[in-house]
From TrEMBL:
Stored Pfam families: Clp1, CLP1_N, CLP1_P
Naturally occurring in which organism (per UniProt): Encephalitozoon hellem (Microsporidian parasite)
GO molecular function ontology, one term from the record: ATP binding
Domain of life from the UniProt record: Eukaryota
Keyword Nucleotide-binding on entry: yes
Protein's recorded name: Polynucleotide 5'-hydroxyl-kinase GRC3
Length: 373
């Protein structure tokens, strides 16, 4: 089957995990989230909701099955491209405008599209994810990564030397820990002195919450994607920019993000499984793991949302972060080197991307579990 797209149209597809849809550009130019598709090459899509966009018009050849496919005239790609055009006309001078906080519906797609536009111009982009529910880098973590290659429409973001703090949950319930780790993350970013465009993908929150992050990360603009009500109700100290939402808002699945980390998108990696023999200390961070109120002295109160790490029993199927900390009091504010999954708690058998663990001391146990290995 052939599909004809006119300029500034999208071909939208919904493909479930048991289906596969192949698309080839027969003539003209087309792209997915800023990545230009090569002519006469098949691209196989499965378990995704995405869209193919064209600036100038194109013809596509489509084979396979999917839940839904259609052509739409509604798109936000030209608006995203206008941001690239602005910087291009100003010689990519970031002295007055560098850091963008991105919120709203479709914020991951916005970030990836803009990043790919910049990469195609030979520029790098610093991508920071402080929404632990997204999992573009790793779910349950607050991370930053310097992107210097295209984000592939099939494989997604290439995890090349990310800096990551393991928050341990996809929900922000311990604000003190979140504040500590975002502060440490920003300190690490400033220490790197990277002079490229900086996109910060943020979770949902109040205006006060956003203003705190704006000050912490020295944000120049707040981009609101696909939510006009949020844009008009938002009372923030940085200038706002409204961008219409993309064709699809694909919900990030924690299990799929974790599987990608260990096995790749198409199971191209083979992770290692082995029993841990080196003595590690399993810890959890937060108020719920310190002494209960009944155990405190009469009249005293317990600090809510504390950041102390306490040793706990290892839990089956838990996702553990490999902490760089040398002392237990430094665990909450230290980055992690990577992640493992507990396959068997009794024998301490784990799933790992490497054949052995580095010689550190602490493994951080959070709320995340993963059972598909």
């Amino acid at each position: 089957m052939e599909i004809r797209l006119w300029p500034n149209q999208e071909f939208r597809i919904e493909v479930n995990e048991t289906q596969k849809l192949k698309v080839m550009v027969v003539s003209g130019l087309a792209e997915v989230k800023g990545q230009e598709l090569l002519s006469e090459k098949w691209y196989a899509f499965k378990d995704t909701k995405t869209f193919i966009f064209t600036f100038s018009g194109c013809r596509l050849k489509v084979e396979g099955v999917c839940d839904l496919q259609y052509v739409s005239d509604t798109t936000n790609v030209p608006l995203i491209f206008n941001i690239l055009s602005f910087f291009s006309k100003n010689g990519f001078d970031y002295s007055k405008l560098r850091t963008f906080m991105v919120i709203g519906n479709g914020r991951s797609t916005f970030c990836f599209t803009l990043i790919n536009f910049f990469i195609r111009m030979g520029k790098k982009v610093l991508f920071t994810e402080i929404d632990p529910s997204r999992g573009n880098v790793f779910p349950g973590a607050l991370s930053t990564i310097h992107v210097d290659t295209l984000i592939d429409c099939i494989e997604g973001l290439r995890l090349k030397n990310p800096l990551s703090f393991y928050y341990g949950s996809t929900e922000i319930t311990n604000m003190e820990l979140y504040d500590l780790q975002t502060t440490k993350l920003q300190e690490a970013i400033k220490a790197k002195n990277i002079e490229d465009l900086h996109l910060i993908l943020c979770p949902e929150g109040t205006s006060a919450f956003y203003n705190t992050l704006i000050k912490r990360f020295e944000v120049d603009r707040v981009v609101v994607v696909g939510n006009e009500r949020l844009y008009h109700s938002l009372d923030v100290i940085a200038e706002k920019l409204m961008i219409n939402r993309s064709g699809f808002v694909e919900e990030k699945e924690v299990g799929r993000s974790i599987s990608r980390y260990f096995k790749g998108v198409n199971n191209e990696y083979t992770p290692f499984t082995f029993n841990v023999k080196y003595k590690w200390r399993i810890v959890r961070i937060g108020e719920m793991y310190v002494a209960p109120i009944s155990a405190l002295p009469l009249g005293s109160t317990r600090k809510v949302g504390c950041v102390e790490a306490s040793e706990v029993e290892i839990a089956e199927n838990s996702v553990l972060g490999i902490s760089e900390a040398r002392e237990i009091e430094d665990v909450a504010g230290s980055p992690v080197l990577g992640y493992v999954v507990v396959i068997d708690a009794n024998s301490f058998k784990i799933l790992c991307t490497q054949p052995r663990l580095p010689k550190y001391t602490f493994l951080i146990q959070g709320d995340l579990k993963h059972i598909e290995y």
